Amino acid sequence: MMKHSEVSIRLLGENDWMVLENVEADVFDYPVQADLAKEFLRDPRHHMVVAIDNNKVVGFASGVHYVHPDKIAELFINEVGVAPTYQRQGIAKKMLKALLARGKTLGCQEAWVATEPDNHAARALYTSVGGREDSNPFVLYLFSLEGELRS
């Protein structure tokens, strides 16, 4: 593990898509596409915090704040990723705290995230910033929206 001292944490704004043009390997699951980055950042309900070292994105945390007619405003934490050589240095924790702070400024009263039971690193991260495991597990369903939908 290399120690990186100049990593800065930054909340991206709607015109910051070009920051995502220079990303360290293995931060995102797939290569960032400019059109999707623009769409994401221009949507006022989507939020992304990045970690930057020498003008290169080495980590990110993304989320969506949402409202519903009968529920409090919530922040769904979609994903947290850090380049392997930058892991275990507190970067993910700093980004997650910044994302949670953003949710609070938007009036969100709760935030939530889901992860796989065997993802011990993610579970430790979420616990380290005050998250607690929900006692009611849920079952995830995926729907393909390609082709015909069942009637």
Written account of the structure:
With 151 residues, the protein is α+β, with helices and mostly antiparallel strands. It has a single domain (8-128), classed as Gcn5-related N-acetyltransferase (GNAT) (Aminopeptidase, 3-Layer(aba) Sandwich), CATH 3.40.630.30. The protein is 22% helix and 26% strand. The chain contains three helices and five strands, in the order βαβββαβα. It has a five-stranded mixed β-sheet with strand order 1-2-3-4-5, sandwiched between helices. Strand 4 (71-82), helix 2 (91-105) and strand 5 form a beta-alpha-beta unit. The longest helix has 15 residues, at 91-105. The model has no long low-confidence stretch (mean pLDDT 93).
In short:
22% of the residues lie in helices and 26% in strands.
Strand line-up in the sheet with most strands: 1-2-3-4-5
What is the alpha-carbon Rg in Å?
16 Å
**What is the count of helical runs?**
3
CATH fold call: Aminopeptidase
Range of helix content: 10-25%
Give the tally of β-strands: 5
Oligomer: single chain
Q: What's the number of structural domains?
A: 1
Secondary-structure element string: EHEEEHEH
CATH-level-2 architecture: 3-Layer(aba) Sandwich
Shape call? globular
Look at the structure and give the mean pLDDT: 93
Largest sheet: 5 strands, mixed
Please identify the structural class as seen in this structure: alpha+beta
Determine the N-to-C terminus distance: 52 Å
- Please report the first level of CATH classification, the CATH class: Alpha Beta
What's the name of the CATH homologous superfamily? Gcn5-related N-acetyltransferase (GNAT)
